[in-house]
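Hi there,

I know you've been waiting on this one. I reran it after we fixed the sequence typo, so this is the corrected version. Both the input and the resulting structure follow.
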Amino acid sequence: MSAVQDLRDRRRSRLRFSLRQKGGGRPRLSVFRSGKHIYAQVIDDGQGCTLAAASSLDKGLRTDLRTGADKDAAAAVGKLVAERALAAGVTQVVFDRGSYLYHGRVKALAEAAREGGLSF
């Protein structure tokens, strides 16, 4: 494994540990971003299942977006995952940014999810 990947794994595990400590059993809104797309899931770690998910690859979003790798796509995914989480009965989540900084696309997704009705 490369040194960069080791640092990412350490950062991700450090963040998830603190989320488990402070989360209080709430589901987590996990974000993954690639070079071309962005993905979000609301995960219940207690049951080990995904409650809601959205990505820039969804058919409704794919036709509306110019690309899946910009802030507009992240905001659209954030609103969609919030809508699906509310439909599943989830209103409070813990935001899991993974190994990414809270900046750019990750921040746009989080703010759109907040506007969509999720609280974290």
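Quick highlight: Residues 3-115 form a domain with the Nucleotidyltransferase; domain 5 fold (CATH 3.30.420.100).

Best,
R. S.
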